[in-house]
Design a protein that fits this description.
The protein has a single domain, classed as 3-Layer(aba) Sandwich (Glutaredoxin), CATH 3.40.30.10. Helices cover about 35% and strands about 30% of the residues. The protein is built from four helices and five strands; from the N terminus they run E-H-E-H-E-H-E-E-H.
């Protein structure tokens, strides 16, 4: 299961992480978000110990959502050494998400 990231723990879990971090920005009412949610959860298990996989509910965490200028969901942001290095906007296949994450490890 992907780790819940929120306005309160973002800095500790993302900015200060020594691992690559992938965050899924989603909302309950978003159909494409529900489509990729199982993929994100699978990847959390597959990359355990190698990367941090998390989810941010945009409705419950407006601070970090606004700070990172999330305009469309789902959006997957990739961080390395605390800085945003890549993103995927919209639903994507597991193969393309995995490929992007592997390229950052």
């Amino acid at each position: 299961m992907a780790q819940e990231i929120n306005d309160g723990n973002f800095e500790e879990l993302v900015t200060k992480s020594d691992k690559v971090v992938m965050i899924d920005f989603w909302a309950e009412w978003c159909g494409p978000c529900r489509m990729i949610s199982p993929i994100v959860d699978e990847m959390s298990a597959e990359f355990d110990g190698k990367a941090v996989i998390g989810k941010v509910n945009v409705d419950e965490n407006p601070g970090i959502t606004a700070k990172l200028k999330i305009r469309n969901i789902p959006t997957l942001l990739f961080f390395k050494n605390g800085a945003e290095v890549d993103k995927i906007v919209g639903a994507a296949s597991k193969a393309s998400i995995t490929s992007k994450l592997n390229s950052l490890l």
